[in-house]
Amino acid sequence: MALIIYFRITDLPEAARECKMILDIVESAFPYGIRESINEDFKLLEMFHKALELLPKLWIESGFLDEAITAFRRALVKPWCLDPRRLAKVQKDLAALLLYGGVEASLPSHFKSWGPAFPTNNMEESILLLFILAQKILYHEIEWDPEVIDHLTFALTISGQFESLADHVEQILPGIYNRAERWYFLALCYGAAGQYETALNLLKKVAGSSEAKCKPHLASFLLGAKLCAEDSKQARQGMDFALKVIDVSINQNEHLLGEAHKFLGVCYGNAARMSISDSERSSFNRESLNSLNHASSIGTWDPEIKFNLGLENAIQRNLASAFDNTMLYSEMTATSSERGWKLLALILSAEQRLRDAEDIVDLAIDESGSIHQLELLRLKAVLQIAQEQPKQAIETYRILLSLIQAQRERCEKNTDYEALVERKLEVEAWLDLAGLYSDLKSWQDAAICIDKAKLIEMYSHRCWHTTAKLFEVQAQYKEAVIALSVSLSIEPDYVPSIVSSAEVLLKMDDHSLPVAKSLLMNAMRLEPTNHDAWFNLGLIYKKEGSIQQAADCFQAAHELKLSAPVQSFK
């Protein structure tokens, strides 16, 4: 009978039905499966096992994937005395079909009665099967199978369970991967899970002395440079990673060389913002643009390089070059990138083309997804405030807050990240409104908005900074100093609070000039383009009688204000 099934491949559905008939006969005789003790007729048992394995294959070849899934489940749901290797093969094939088959085959209702933790969809069932196989490999019940880890990696990546994937990679026995590959794999998992510090620590091991005699693991160095480029505090470590890639890739791999120069340029720019030395900051700014331009000459196809060039030029206030590169980025991404639109609008606002910037934002809102629409709505309101259109800005904030509330009530958040962004946007909107009402001298409305923000995020440095500004405009300087102290205790490097502290001290008395001057110098170290810091420093020099230095500070403040965006570029 088995030979008949194997050779009747010209009529696959009929072969599948004959194969199923064999299984039905055996199952009717053994409704609870076959115990290990029932093995008197080895040939019949072997034929039955082949039929169990063959039936799903026949259904797959026939194009009936739902029937194939049912056949796989039938082979697994009862004990049929399959040896461990065969059983693992059935489990792996079912997991692969559930993952890649494109057919949603829900479990029968009588399966679901087995418990609340039973899988509810293809993905959960596939992951459960792969977990079982991974455990079998760990305990040497079956041999190492790279396909199991490949399928598990895909499944857990698609479902966002990166930490669980890392746990299983850590369980893989030594010798399967070398140390550098294992650390790189784990770094990918932890990096995707948002645990950047853990990922970087693993990548530092790859770059450490223990691997000095081994072949350089370029993928690890490049990943390290990428992760460091996303964290200003790791800028110098990122420069080291990128330079390692460049040293190895010169005259060998143009793509890796371009990517390394891209990350090196970003890290140089971040290092410039963190530097306390003016000469070092100037050098890093120059090297940042040089590296990004070099990357652009190699990877002309990469829109990310154009975006980073636009962003870095914008931060350094090279607005014409920033505009050109951002336009190239928008063209390369077919104008489908919200961050490209946003950067373009900010560059236009820095050029004092506020109406054009608002038009760009309106266009971007129509093209964007929900979470990006909220961010762009806030930018639109800020642009309206800059154009002295308070009524329009208040209406835009009303729409923004209504949309956030509506999304919260519908519980349509897909990720924790989106929930966090919405929460942050709501706080920012209330604080923006507080500042607007404060400018309109509507103190009570401003206080209400601040209270709304504090209900959401009490320990927000910007909440306390806005509170201090409200006290300041009402000449309540002692209360303002207390609020600013709270703000700086939460975020010591928050430049607006540092500058505001100096402003309040200047208004209180002249005895605090040295303290105010020290605060402003610190603010300018952290943010050299802050025009408020330059202006207040000019006031101090004027009070000290240093007229020329005061004039220079006022001139710098004026020029920086003329090129200041309505929001920070980064």
Automatic annotation (TrEMBL):
Keyword Metal-binding carried by entry: no
Presence of the UniProt keyword Cell division in the record: no
InterPro entries: NPG1-like (IPR043376), TPR-like_helical_dom_sf (IPR011990), TPR_rpt (IPR019734)
Pfam entry (one): TPR_17
Superkingdom of origin: Eukaryota
TPR repeats: 531-564
Entry keyword set: TPR repeat
Stored Gene3D superfamilies: Tetratricopeptide repeat domain
Name of this protein: Tetratricopeptide repeat 7A
Organism: Olea europaea subsp. europaea
Source organism phylogeny: Eukaryota, Viridiplantae, Streptophyta, Embryophyta, Tracheophyta
